[in-house]
Amino acid sequence: MTVNIGLIGLGMIGRDHLQRFQTVIQNARVSAVCDINRNVTDAIAREYGAQPYYDAVEMIQSDDVDAIFICSIGPVHKEQILAAIKAGKPVFCEKPLTPTRMKPKRLLMLK
């Protein structure tokens, strides 16, 4: 079974993960991409055959995505993590998990 990954954030770190999914990781593929820059979203979607999304929460809620990889800017991580948890999807988030030291503990207690 192939896991369909939704990748949020297509900067250097996001592209590194995207390349890894293409060349190293088995049984997973990036099926959807989202970035704040629409031109980047469109270009990466075309290059990798992924569905472009311009709203991260919409992508997270999509039935076509099984798990979420968050590589966006730090201040929006919390919102995107919570959306993935609410959608019942596994989520990986690049650092920082949250902008302050106390908030990660609250996120880790969510199920």
From TrEMBL:
Lineage: Bacteria, Pseudomonadati, Pseudomonadota, Gammaproteobacteria, Enterobacterales
InterPro entries for the chain: Gfo/Idh/MocA-like_OxRdtase_N, Gfo/Idh/MocA_oxidrdct_glycsds, NAD(P)-bd_dom_sf
GO MF terms held by the record: inositol 2-dehydrogenase (NAD+) activity; nucleotide binding
Designated name of the protein: Myo-inositol 2-dehydrogenase
Pfam families for this protein: GFO_IDH_MocA (PF01408)
PANTHER family: BCDNA.GH03377
Superkingdom to which the source organism belongs: Bacteria
Broad enzyme group: oxidoreductase
Record-listed E.C. numbers: 1.1.1.18
Organism annotation: Klebsiella michiganensis
Domain called Gfo/Idh/MocA-like oxidoreductase N-terminal: residue spans: 3-102
Gene: iolG_2
Keywords, alphabetical: Oxidoreductase
